[in-house]
Model the fold of this input.
Amino acid sequence: MNRFLVDLLADLNVVLAIAILLFGAAAGYYWAKGTGDNLTFGMGIGIGLVAGLIVAAIVCGLLACLILIERHLRLIADDVEEMRRPETR
Done:
């Protein structure tokens, strides 16, 4: 069950990164719209995308590192288990 959850988290990590980017773009747009200054439509979205990219890199990058560590530990555990099994010849 744990392996299924880790694999599901790995798949959802991409969706989470895209959602963070879209949320950042939307937040930047509404921020630019609310200021009433000479900020253009593209400027607000650009600022939001950069902020979203930074947040996505931190959050999703951390998740990706943890998932990679789990997969390496899984390989090590499988190898140790295989070495402990008696040979059947």
About this structure: Residues 2-84 form one domain. The CA atoms of residues 30 and 44 lie 8 Å apart. The chain has a mean pLDDT of 88. The chain has one domain: 2-84.
